[in-house]
Amino acid sequence: MIYIFGDSHANTNFANLGLPHRNFYKNAITMHRVGRDRKIIGLKEVRQTPEDIYVFCNGEIDCRCHVARQMALGRGKEEVISKLVEDYVEAIRRNVRRYRAVILSCVTPPMSRAKYEAKHGPITHEFPFIGTDQERADYSRSMNRMLEAACQRTGFIFMDYYSHYTDELGMLRYDLSDEVCHIRQNGEIIEMLQQLVASLSPLAGGSVSRL
User: pTM of the prediction?
Assistant: First the structure.
């Protein structure tokens, strides 16, 4: 069985997955919250076995508004993001003990603020876009680089579809989005996950891979 955890991107990125799975996504769950609380929401409903595959998808909200807030308090970008990733991965390690594979999804590219506001008007909700488009794209790329490095250290799998959904300015491709901040046309992600699952032997036990 495949178990999927994360924020709203865990829902949209893996919608219509044609493999046996359960999706425990919860809107607005940040990478910071997972790492701080050392808790995976929904995991208590799972009876962990060595055959299970776990997919985690968090971090877009952190890159969209929380990294810049922490930097405004005097922290450096690398320190902020590395701490987020370190605590996130440790929370997963502490909670997921039996598995065939643990997959960490890349953080999706950020939505252009100008395109968002042209469609929806000024941003007034609780998760604003903080930082310029290029700054937020830089945060996302840095977080993905650190997630990949963490997977290499832990034996988790880094699932990287970032470039497929990035436009020439480094932002989320608007034609593949839901015009908010999510990926709508997720066929590339579904195909990638299906290929990855097919490549895993029953005894893979968390072997390192990267797509």
Answer: 0.93
Domain boundaries, the chain: 2-210
Say if CB 67 and CB 123 are below 8 A apart: no
Report, at the CATH architecture level, how domain 2-210 is classified: 3-Layer(aba) Sandwich (3.40)
From the centroid of its chain, how far is CA 151?
A: 13
Beta strands in the chain (DSSP E): 2-6, 21-23, 53-57, 101-105, 157-159, 209-210
3-state secondary structure of 29: coil
Return d(Cα 58, Cα 123) in angstroms, integer: 22
What DSSP element (H or E) covers 119?
helix 113-120
Q: How confident is the model at residue 206 (pLDDT cuts 50, 70, 90)?
A: very low
